[in-house]
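can u pls check wat happens w/ magnesium ion
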Amino acid sequence: MSCDLKLYSVATHKINRYSKAIYIKRIVFLGKGRFSLGRFSFSQDLGIDLGTANTLVFVKNKGVVLREPTVVAKNIEAGEIEAVGNAARNMIGRTPGNISVIRPMKDGVIADYDTTAVMMQYYLKKAMRKRSFFASKPNVVICVPSGITMVEERAVIDATKQAGAKDAFPIAEPFAAAIGAGLPVWEPTGSMIVDIGGGTTEVAVISLGGIVTSRSIRTAGDDMDEAITQYIRKHYNLMIGERSAESIKMDIGSAGEVETNEEMEIRGRDLLTGLPKTITITAEEISASLNDAVEDIVNAVKSTLEKTPPELAADIMDRGIVLTGGGSLLKNIDQVISDETKIPVFIAENPLDSVAIGTGKSLEYIKHFQTNPNVSSHPTIE
Ligand code: ADP
Ligand code: MG
């Protein structure tokens, strides 16, 4: 480090005294940067969680700097992007005919590549806006939904590079989630992670830096919202929007039996009269409507346990199952999984951020990903 500083000092001698002052300032900044950034010097490497519901960007030494919905609003007539992220999400269910709101990763596959590429570039540029003047191009570890094909994964990597990354490395979602949740993924012990996102739930058993067994199903938060919408339509002839269904789930939804019978007022459009209407719904009804989705998730956990080698299964019994992803915030889901498997269940500290934190932490292990295909390969989605 001192060597670099000397070189800069020598260079400044040839510059007049005004610009010299500027150079000296930069040297001080560089000196600090060197200390804190360690061997990766000036580059601020990034971790990206390209989720079906939310996209997060982690900047090395800073943490998660961006959390926005994986949503894009597009003007279909002009073929132009109208809004990305939060701004686009606010338009869901409220657009005129010429604007379409797209969730490009909704079912764990890329619905529209061009839109995804524009969205990635928008997020990367936003996250890198405050980078130091001296920062070199960042390396990026990126987590993509496991349903996407190798070709689509390649396409996301290319989009990431186009947006200014030096290189981009894919990482399997449950592996990133496990690292982010602080599980001992490199040790010879079995860790089970269940990541309940918007479009997919991923269950995996990890040991010695690799995924031993895993399962990915297309039942997660979105299906819960859909189940609520269907229930209210069927029993109350009331049509509600996607975002209302999600807030009902978050407010009074729960897995299993309800303990306190809360109620909630819901507004929507009466299917018989066509007019706006308000109804009151109970937590018990919502919980019942979520039963099928919860059962699918429990079954995915059970079937993964059945495929787990006995030594690792014993480790999991001792250490418990860890839940991540926004779906793990559904009330009581940890208790239901624990009751059904007879294994203790814990929710990660920041379940919505675990994958992004995991991509960030794994920037240290880029070499491992290049040589260990098991980590970056995808389980087949069902
Ligand atoms: P992804 O990784 O697929 O982008 P996330 O991990 O960001 O998904 O989780 C998003 C899902 O979590 C959404 O379906 C959202 O409705 C759900 N979610 C977020 N908070 C809660 C909550 N408090 N209760 C129930 N579900 C929640
Ligand atoms: Mg996720």
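Residues 318 and 343 are 8 Å apart (CA to CA).
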